[in-house]
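thread from #wetlab-drylab

HS: before we spend reagent money on co-crystallization trials with iron/sulfur cluster, can we at least see a predicted complex? here's what I'd submit
DV: go for it
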Amino acid sequence: MYKLEAINSMKKLMKEYFLSLETGKKKIAWCTSVGPAELLRSFGFEVYFPENHGALLGATRTAIDFIPDAIKCGYSGHICSYTTADIGSFVKKQTPLQKHYGMKGIPEPDLIAYNTNQCREVEDWFTFYADHFNCPIVGVQPPRYLDEVTQDEVDLVVKQFKKMIPTCEKVSGQKFDLKKFKDVVRLSKEATLLWQKVLKTSIADNAPLSFFDGTIHMGPIVVLRGTQVAKDYYQELLNELEDNVSKGKGFLPETRMRIFWEGMPIWGKLRMMSDLFKQNKAAVVASTYCSSWVFDNFDEHNPWESTARAYTEIFINRSEKSKMKMLEHWLKEYKIDGIIYHDSKTCFNNSNAKFGMPQRLKNDTGVPSLIIEGDLCDLRFFSEGQSITKIETFIEQIQESKALG
Ligand code: SF4
């Protein structure tokens, strides 16, 4: 059975990270997953990411136990299920972190920071906690849906980043230190470039990393970017994957086609989905989701502008036109035979199948597409039987058209 050895290091790393949040040695800043983590780390904060907790609630299928409690607090069951699962879990004082790592609960914040580059939901979500803990909250609100990110937008976001400094200084008790900021940005850049290389190993015909494995191995680039341990981890993972590529060892013994996954993972069904594609000899080799933590514009010599640009240029924050350009590039780069859009019911921000993109992209590239309905955490929006039928039919159709040449 194909198994990456690096998973053991990753589990150890993630455990140490979570336990470090409870030692009381460092002040805790909460941050959105594509928020200004580098700036926060430069002030000595340990950084906690509620979205990572949301993904954990989805993957452990506990989300559905908690969503009703958030609904009782006035949050609709149709908004982001990371938000509702996380708030419900907090209200119920239960989290898988207790069972997995023996933690008391989620760590209390000293500071809360968000970036609406991904969605406005994070502001509402994080404000719930800022109110509850009476905690300072700072936010960045970049322009959205851009074709191109120009110097004007970068300047605006830099201004917003800099506005965070007085609050960060007050809460952390540390003065802003440009050298520290540059060091964190450098480490973050080094880790993110390794992560990019990790993903690109699956350009190989015998791809060594599936999308489903990628969603697990991306943990450190989300929660530990800007640290040496994250960089070391991705070097280890990359070495193993490159070794597998050189030996022609892929995650599937035999591959009939290559698939691209667009949209959020269905966290509670990762194993089921991975097995389904495997049985059908279809390799899911790339995704927009895993690529979202590649910030190749980071530059420690220009830390403000480069982080502002990188965090504003992310896929989710762009126009349809710009997203299509990126997708066209990935479809070519990864030699994709078919693209699956996950139309996530509680996250329209990360669902790109609603405004005709699948048809337009097929016209431009000839790559066939399938839309499946589901959700990141709330499995009431996902029909397993229906999705299996749709996916197997799609795979057969691709197979037939490949046979016809
Ligand atoms: S991008 Fe979607 S899943 Fe992520 S926090 Fe925003 S609404 Fe939720």
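DV: Residues 51, 80, 82-83, 118-119, 121-122, 347, 349-350, 376 surround iron/sulfur cluster (CB under 6 Å).
HS: ok that's useful, forwarding to the group
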